[in-house]
Amino acid sequence: MSALGALPFLRPVHLRSPRSSPGGQRRHTLPASEFRCLSPEDAASVFEIEREAFISVSGDCPLHLDEIRHFLNLCPELSLGWFEEGRLVAFIIGSLWDQERLSQAALTLHKPQGSAVHIHVLAVHRTVRQQGKGSILMWRYLQHLRCLPCARRALLMCEHFLVPFYQKCGFEALGPCEVTVGDLAFVEMQHPVRGHAFMRRNSGC
Questions:
Q1: How confident is the model at residue 61 (pLDDT cuts 50, 70, 90)?
Q2: 115 part of a folded domain
Q3: Annotation says 58 is catalytic
Q4: Which of 66, 114, 133, 161 is placed for a possible disulfide with 98 were both Cys, Cβ 3.0 to 4.6 Å?
Q5: Residue 95 annotated to the active site
């Protein structure tokens, strides 16, 4: 059984009660809200949300469709999607990195022996923004990482205007990131991932 099935915080938040059909048989309904790791089959939905969220701001996406499929094939356990009634509304995609700080190579590589989780992208569908979903999803993602023995810390890079958001999520700024994309400069941020033994004992990880 995968680790996902044993994580209580990845189970649906609210489940609709099964409804009865006219013939008296109960029919299944989709969960009202569900968190789960993504699969390559989710790549198109992921890219649609990401493209709308980033192209209007920076003119480019952190991950293109082939890169999304690449990471979801290599390390789906380092992703997390928020689904409402079966529709993806927010997601995070990460990969493992094996150096102290991020470099240009971190944009495309997954280092299976690494202990740092590089968070490539967090995006929320435009119809549900300004509802705190980004913060909630990041909190659940960090809880998820605490059940992965490989993860010791989370790293990300963001533009300056997003630093306060990630600080509220518990990240600290490490300084300017050496990675550049076109004319964009970034701040590198870090969050420690603690409590592996405790989480495994108490959540079935």
A1: confident
A2: yes
A3: no
A4: 114
A5: yes
* CA neighbor of 38 nearest in space, from 103, 85, 89, 1: 89
In a domain, 27, yes or no: no
Domain count, the chain: 1
Indicate the pTM of the whole model. 0.81
The sign of the dihedral angle between the CA atoms of 138, 142, 143, 148 is positive
Is 65 annotated in the active site? no
- Cα angle 165-116-203, degrees, rounded to a multiple of 5: 85
Catalytic pick from 38, 96, 166, 191? Answer: 166
Which structural domain, as residue segments, surrounds residue 101? Answer: 33-192
Where residue 142 sits, what CATH number does that domain have? 3.40.630.30
Considering the candidates 79, 95, 145, 148, report the single residue annotated as catalytic.
95
**Catalytic one among 74, 109, 162, 174?**
109
Active-site residue identified among 118, 120, 125, 144: 120
Kindly report, residue by residue over 45-55, the tens digit of the pLDDT: 999 999 998 87
Degrees, nearest 5: CA angle 87-88-91: 165
